[in-house]
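Predict fold of Triose-phosphate isomerase; 233 aa.
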Amino acid sequence: MNKHFIRPPFFEVGPKAYFCGQQALELARIAEEASRETEVAVIYTPQLTDLHLIAENTSGLYLCAQHMDPLYPGRGQGSILPEAVKAAGAKCVMLNHAERPVALDALARTIGRAREVDLISIICASSCAQAVACAALHPDIIVVEPSELIGTGVASDQTLVEASTRSVKNVSPEIQVLQGAGIASAEDVYRVIYAGADATGSSSAICKAADPGKMLREMLAAAMQAYRDRTCA
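Predicted 3D structure, encoded as tokens:
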């Protein structure tokens, strides 16, 4: 069993650069409460500069850094040190997002550094083929999200969800799969979890919602319902 296994279904909330400071903390507190209510674990991915603030004021989230670099303590002006990410309170790190791509060799080294400092490695892939290539690096979680769908409100179709999840599990059953990009409603959440994903997530749909807390609660409830329906069928 992967020691970094997160009980499914789980959900990633990514404020990206929509929120920072107190706004990011407010959403984190809402996410923490919603996670307790629904029993769906939440990965929360704020700005790097907000990790410590949120870690000091919440306790029920998997805090995630948006990026880090594969360097060791020493020289590296402007780079993000893995030990600093861990010290700030993060439990996870996200790598190779479409908005922050990483070359494959650097990705392999950064996954290794994540293991060394005991961070859950979450790797983004924009296609089924890239997901398989990333799975060969043995991260803890792979996020499958076609880059052309990010922020569009149009989610991946069921064929891609099923095929990419199956392909990753064929490489390593221990890798958990999060299906993302374009998740805009509770219905989208239900569909991808029911189709076999361990997790899903949303950024713009939550951050731009008139009531982000309501949207998040609906999405988490849908994730749990879909997982129960899938596993009890």
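The longest helix spans residues 212-232.
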